Amino acid sequence: MKLIESIYEIKKDYNLFLFDQWGVIHNGEKLYSNVEKIFKDLLDDNKLIYIVSNSGKKSSDNIGRLQKMGANYILKAEIITSGDVCLDYLNKKIGPCKDIGQNFYPIGIDYPLLKDTQFKKVNNIEDSDFLLLTTTSGFKDFKRAHSLMEIALKLEIPLVCSNPDVLGLHGKDIHPSTGDLALHYNKIGGKTLVFGKPEIEIYEYVQSKSKVDKDKILMVGDSLFNDIAGANNFKIDSLLIKNGIHKENFSEKTSDIDTINTIKSDSQITGVPDFIINELK
């Protein structure tokens, strides 16, 4: 693991750059100051860029958010969300979604991921073939969600989750995210089908579009559990942004590698980056 001062130090070594969204490009409220210039310079140098986000929503909704933040060159890169990949697998009924059924019951925020598809939303959990969990942004009633999951568990109904992030970043605050709810269902014994980093489907999806060899791909992210572990799983290089989801863990008193070794989760693997940087610049 190498500490670098700027992404420009390693720019020449990669042809495809994968950027996480929250904690790397923006903090949920505004863009980070250096990102627009970095995207412009990479594009001017004929580098390929994809924004690879653990967003349970479609990429079109993420484009709207970035537009409101004033993104310009950032929007010249294609956005791939875990919601996009989840929708693709469900529509094609492939992989873990092969025998998923038709009826779904939404858990958390009822985001219309499956609008205008073959799937039907039902009002009673007992009538569902699967639970659909896309986002908990603004969601408050976790007690009721847990109660519904207890019912689904008894009925052996699987949960499809399109955002595996356990923690989220908004402004300066770090808070539980959608994946935390999926993790609860898994802990109580429920079957969960999760799309997004650190699972490799989203990386496979992007590589199939880009046709770039793995040794020329760099993942830039702030989550050891998702971005970096996912890059490790897919066997591509990665760059960790310290000033993101783990910012409260790092200090000048402890070396970066020792800090990373202390960031643990009972349910997630801690990835190890090839490079580390204080903030994206």
What does this structure look like?
- The protein is an alpha/beta fold and 281 residues long.
- It has 2 domains: 2-81 and 198-277, 3-Layer(aba) Sandwich (Rossmann fold), CATH 3.40.50.1000; 84-194, HAD superfamily/HAD-like (Rossmann fold, 3-Layer(aba) Sandwich).
- The chain contains 8 helices and 14 strands.
- It has a 7-stranded parallel β-sheet, sandwiched between helices.
- The radius of gyration is 19 Å and the shape is globular.
- 42% of the residues are buried.
Topology at a glance:
Layout: E1 2-3, E2 16-19, H1 35-44, E3 48-53, H2 59-68, E4 78-81, H3 82-92, E5 103-107, E6 120-121, E7 130-133, H4 142-154, E8 159-161, E9 167-170, E10 173-176, H5 178-187, E11 192-194, H6 201-210, E12 217-221, H7 224-234, E13 237-241, H8 256-262, E14 275-277
Parallel strand pairs: 1-14, 2-3, 2-12, 3-4, 5-6, 5-7, 7-8, 8-11, 12-13, 13-14
Antiparallel strand pairs: 9-10
